Amino acid sequence: MTHHWETAKKFVDSLANLRFDNAFNPYSDICPDFDRPNAAAIRRDNLTRVLEAALDRGVSSVWVARDLGYRGGRRTGLALTDESHLDAHSRLFGTVSLARSTNGPASAERTAKVVWRMLMSIRQPIFLWNVFPLHPHEPDKPMSNRCHTRAERQACRHIMVTLLELLAPNSILAIGRDAEAALTDLGIDARSVRHPSYGGQSQFVEGVTRHYNLPVAISDDLLLI
Questions:
Q1: Mean pLDDT across the stretch 143-171?
Q2: What is the CATH number of the domain that holds 18?
Q3: What is the pLDDT at residue 123?
Q4: What are phi and psi of 83, to 5 degrees?
Q5: I need a surface site. Which of 6, 59, 132, 188 has the fewest CB within 10 A?
Q6: 113-to-27, 39, 162, 217 alpha-carbon distances in Å
Q7: pLDDT in tens, 30-59
Q8: Is there a contact between 23 and 135 (Cβ–Cβ < 8 Å)?
Q9: Domain range spanning residue 135?
């Protein structure tokens, strides 16, 4: 639907206008080490296509993590999605193929691998997002991850609120305690599961399995990753 494309594009354009110190905006910034010349435009297009499809189809849930990472969303512009799972993301909502915005080998992230194995098992339209929608990094260390600040989170509250109003999900699932606490700080209620990193893979799989009433056999299989 044309109006959904326009709505999605307007939302992504608002993201591209965000500016914070020591935070990479994948929708407007270019990484001098890895990005193609039109990388920001590619990432804007990827997110616009996914959001348009989510608006067309409707979503059952929104999964919300803390912020973009340097091996995942910084490169793809898509939350909890590394370059190895761009095709999986396009299949999730039936979009056209999503494009890579970087040069060199495709980047892979363990968190994304676990998340996408679960998404492929659930087989429901689930939208992925972050409380802070950019990649925060340490000063002078662009390829590092840091937790966003409360001031950064509050400055982006309108983005989070607008997205939830547009998608009207049946449930919101916070991925990790940091994301849960950040959403609470924004006045947004969400159920939570353990983040799959730092030894939390089995708890993440078990938590998602309970939330979606998946067969235990699927959970057992995923724990073999």
A1: 97
A2: 3.40.470.10
A3: 87
A4: -65, -25
A5: 6
A6: 23, 23, 28, 19
A7: 999 999 999 999 999 999 999 999 999 999
A8: yes
A9: 2-222
